[in-house]
């Protein structure tokens, strides 16, 4: 921070209070910070709105942002329980509850809906559960019969805004205030576009572009979509099945890629003249996609290994269809009867580790912040950790045991860090809990091994 930035812009005295949001300006007092806010607001905002012919209106970063910086933050207008199944949940904090028939489960004394406790902040807060409680009290038989229609709570809370908070009701009716908080999952340089992904990150370029064209009405020209190799991952690349130019008895082994990033561009081998049309590739991918869905519906190790060997003749080893098959396969190695970790041969265990590392290398390129593919990466990290621990158990030397356990520890720590922003009670939070438990057990093993070594 320069000398100019530590001077209060209001009175020119030395500033002691740094702006907590942008950390670019200091103030001598909170009063002067409030006074200067109308002027500083534009500078403090981490983005500017811009316009282009291709994108229309878009946001550009106004300054460098570190990973996990809060870009946009708003209080939600209303929120309610997630519709995840028949299980009961607290209307105050949404904590999953045990069987509501159990007399130990607390209930709201007025509407009789199940709650986590009578002192839950959300239950007793005058602006959260209490307004709807007055409505639910009109028919306590619904709750007494355990007919909890959680899908009605959120719409009810929205409707109650009409009387409870007319200003929020007007915002709600404009359908614009829907974001509570957004953070960047990678470092962003000032001037770079702020963007999100509207499609599946693990699809190939053609599938992603077709989806965006059909649903968002634009042709994506991001760095990944503009690169035929998809940033070197080859998530869409095909293998050439033609004959080698020098020896017709041997398969070419070249890689077939789009000749350009233009829409509907032809695909060409990088070693021979073989060419495919975009429609031919799309038809091939559609048929392979159906086969993938069929094979991973009720998968077994042998079934997926055989299928993967067939795909290997047509697709690059990193192709997104191969990715999905391998992602299922690494979970079967270690769980399927006859293939539990302790039953795996050394070659099978090594294969599981190699596949995990392959998948992580791909994810690290297309999703370096592990934001969009976080559940996929978390599963890979946990599978890799378990395989490394098993390898450590089989290792002969203390040095190898320690090295493998240290690698496993890195995977668990990365998994926990990546899942830190997942909402409570979500699938991501559940996986994070597993990773934390495993880390505690792993540290215990490492401590015990260190004791043996000394």
Automatic annotation (TrEMBL):
Keywords in alphabetical order: Metal-binding, Zinc, Zinc-finger
Domain (MYND-type) ranges: 8-44
Keyword Cytoplasm: no
Classification via SUPFAM superfamilies: HIT/MYND zinc finger-like
GO molecular function, one term: zinc ion binding
PROSITE patterns referenced in this protein's UniProt entry, alphabetically: ZF_MYND_1, ZF_MYND_2
Pfam families, per the entry: zf-MYND
InterPro entries referenced in this protein's UniProt entry, alphabetically: SET_SmydA-8 (IPR053010), TPR-like_helical_dom_sf (IPR011990), Znf_MYND (IPR002893)
Protein name: MYND-type domain-containing protein
Domain of life: Eukaryota
